[in-house]
Amino acid sequence: MKASHKWLRELVPALPNDPQIIKQTLTNAGLEVEGVHRFGAASSSCIVVRVESFKPHPSRSGLRLVTVFDGQGTREIVCGAPNVPEPGGLVVLAPLGTELPAVNLTIAPRAIGGITSEGMLCSERELGLSEEGEGILVFEPGFAAPGTKLSEAGSAFDDWVYELSVTPNRPDALGHVGLARELCALLAIPFDLAIRNAGAPSAGGTEAVSVRLTAADRCDHYAYALLSGAHNGPSPLELRLRLQALGSRSISKLVDITNEALLLFGHPVHAFDRRKIAGDGIEVRRARAGEVLVGLDAIERTLVEDDLVIADAASAVAIAGVMGGLGSSVEGATTEVILEVAVFDPRSVRRTGRRHAMHTDASHRFERGIDASDTDAVRAWCIDRMVSLTGAKLVGHGREGRAEVQPNQVTLRHERLELLTGAPVPWKEAQEILARLGFARLSGDSAFALFMIPPHRPDCSREEDLIEEVIRVRGFDAIPAELPAIRPAREVDGRERFFRQLREAAVGATLHEACCYALLSPEKLAAAKAPAATVVLQNPLHSERSVLRTSLLPGLLDNVALARRKGERDARIFTVGRVFLAGEGALPAEPMRFCAVLAGERSAWLTKSEPLTVWDALGLAEGIVDRALGLRVTAKPANHEAFHPRACGDLVVGDVRVGSFGQLHPHVADAFEVGRETLVVELDVEALYALPARNEAIVSLPRFPANYRDVALVVPETVAAGTLAAAIREAAGSLAKDVVLFDRYLGASIPEGHASLAFRVLYRADERSLTDAEVDERHGAVLKTVHERFGVAQRA
Amino acid sequence: MSDARPSEAPSLPAALEAIGETFPARFRAASSEALLREEKAKLLGKKGDLTAALKIMGSLPPADRKAAGELVNGLKAAIEKAFDERLGAIEAEALAKELAGPAYDLTLPSRAPAPRGHKHPIGIVRDEIVDIFRSLGFAVHDGPEVELEEYNFTKLGFPPDHPATDMQDSFWTTGGHLLRTHTSNVQIRAMLGKQPPFAFVAPGTVYRRDDEDATHLPQFNQLEGFLVDKRVSFAHLRGVLAEFAERLYGPGTTIRLRPSYFPFVEPGAEVDVRCVFCKGKGCPTCKGTGFIEILGCGLIHPVVFEHCGIDPQEWTGFAFGMGLERIALLRYGIEDIRLLVENDPRFLSQFR
To answer: Is the pLDDT of residue A533 over 70?
Structure first.
């Protein structure tokens, strides 16, 4: 919403003339002024001059030498405009040294074809008054005395324009009358506008046009007037500039008056060309399904029954509260006008606007709720304005629907006001603030008061609304800061702490935390072999962000690919976040997942880096689960689509699967354009969270020494080391406290397809020292078993 | 020496004398510990010279054996002593040499146990803010990201078909639900069917239909906080937020409240902190105003309590919500919000 400083002061001359004070006052009260702009900044340095004579430029075709009189003497100006008026006409001169910020120009003496111009004759565009730059600005003779500063020749040439960000609860601030009222309340200036008090016109019949309201739930209040004999045409300069300053394009007198009314009262009004209305009357009704209307924007729209229209005998002529129809619109030749000042249901206007992707100055106001009590005043003002500007005559007027708006009444308790404020609030002051805002006090005493809600405040309906008004106007600075005694709520569960432990464990395990989009495309999910999306957006911004993820993997792979394209091939990133899967109730399940992606190489010290392997991924998983939970995770062979079939495993804690790990499947790697050696760890955070707590009691330290025996076995590569280790452990019995694979060798001395695996077995008894003979005997049993079970012998 | 063994046995004293005369020189000649031990073995080992001499002892008449034994033991002790001295000297010499060697090249790259990991800036900011509120007595709660319209809007007091929802343009799912536009749905989730007191914060991801550009992402993070108890006032809200600002931005940081509108609070306010970069003097970051807007807040609207089955005459409360991206961007001087979701390792590795 744009507001004119001059217009506000025209309405209430007692308002301060300092735009900064107005800005601060409004902002501090919740009507945020985002900016204050100077309109017509050049007007105070440009002057009105009279054309005395002109002749062609001696050497430049298209240019003229214009002699102007500036009130004291004459000057010669070089001018290229086609519309220099005949002698006696008035134009605007920017003297030498003038700054024209709208075109970023400072007038300096400059020879044009050998003749130095003593300034420049200006167009509206150069003066920053409008976009009109075709010719120079010309005034009728007698407009102002030559030599008058432009800013003093008329009030519209120079103004301050406020850019307001009005919150949706304050439709009253969407017009100058409402803003003036608010400012008066805030600055304790009396507010009483004569234009607000006009009643129904005394002249004119009431049956000139018939109006029928056949959708009373959508429109139960419709005032109108019929005027004829109008001479429409371009608006006078002052009106034109006022609209331009506020961002509204000037069209013609009749149309401009309706726009001016909207900006003044915040109440949208509409004018129909009577001669384009079929039949004797209009109807406010729901649209017929499939009914077609071409709007003022020349776009044809097919309406539905939920849309409200204004219709003549033949068809819809306007979309109520949103936009007029092209076919019934006022033109330059229009002489007869039906003026509409109505109130439309906010929800209906909003639904229609959204349905047809239309947002207009009118719909913006109607959908927020407008003051239904001012239709008489707005109509009277428009009629006066049309009569005086176009010479039209009022033929008739009328009103359908309810005449009176029943105001709400609300009780305010002093005790409640102070409780919510948290500080004393003088009762007299509170009541005065409400009175200034237009809340009439009906009754009350020292503890409570009954107030009538003014019709321009549809946002106020209960006690807290009045309390907000008092707090807002007094200012938040009047409220002290006080720390409450917080009775802590029970932590619902420890999930946030747990997630943090996991994240910190991952960071401790050398990973970078990433923050990924949950919105992505179905194709990305498919490329990562993730389950198909269960949450699909109706209205995505674009197809790349049209579903919610079912896996964290594609997001991380996208990040790795992007970094790779930017020249960074090493990535060790993880994220903890939700995936969205089919749920049991109305909403999807949103389990938490962990995913880490490793790409690049494992750096070594002053020697060649090694490629990362699937065992790096396993080590990472072990480290994270150990750091976060103190639990030991182990690998089990598995097969998952996203992973290389030869390098894929599940992660288990005890018997519980808590995740998986592996090397990315080459198809997936290629689809995301990441390296084929990319490794992945996925953890099911919910499964980890559900694991029984680790037994935290310590194990006593061994009291007797350990004995070690090594065994090196040459086995086919198909025999898993883990299987061998388990067999060794089983054969070694309870005295074997640990079995560790400490060497794995493939090479020349080992047969093709075989590996040499060396294990170290740690023997120890809890209650005594073992003898060498005992250990040898037990170890002999181990060798025998592996030989029998795997057909392998100890390597020489 | 075995090849020097005489066919006619020499007398023991003569043999011992020969050993006694030669071993000091042999020890001195040994230039390393290994050579020294070798020499000692030649004397005292199984085939050593002294051992060989001892074999003669058995042939001596018993009357001579005692004197001979004393001689042997004396010589053995002398050898051991000389060995220890020479060994000490060799070790000292080696250490002196090692100490006197050239300094190591400490300009070589260090040998880190492993590259370190880093938290995401959003994670850092979120953890820090959660910790502040936890220490003030707030617990942590959460709610779903795909939400019923009723919990995201209706129960929070957004009137149906009201432009207030334009402030939060929503993504709708084909199932007729929406992606939560704020973490305020957690208020409803936490309060519905329960009775106060409540003191929660709720960090979480939210979604709004904003095109991605340098200052907007369609998906971002908020932290909601709310407190409900008897006689909670606006002064309490101000107190908690002032405390928060000082803990997050340092002692002396002041806040400023301006009236604003959110359907689920009344009175509603926007909160600015005094610019931490210019201390309120005005700088490019705060656009010359001296203050930076960081959150929205207000007293919980009674309609929200009513929708949750809580009597607003008995209980009052406040709520606040802040955008974590904004706080992170300001803190780290990040000029393009998209860096936060690109997750380039070179970006991520810059955070503590």
So the answer is: yes
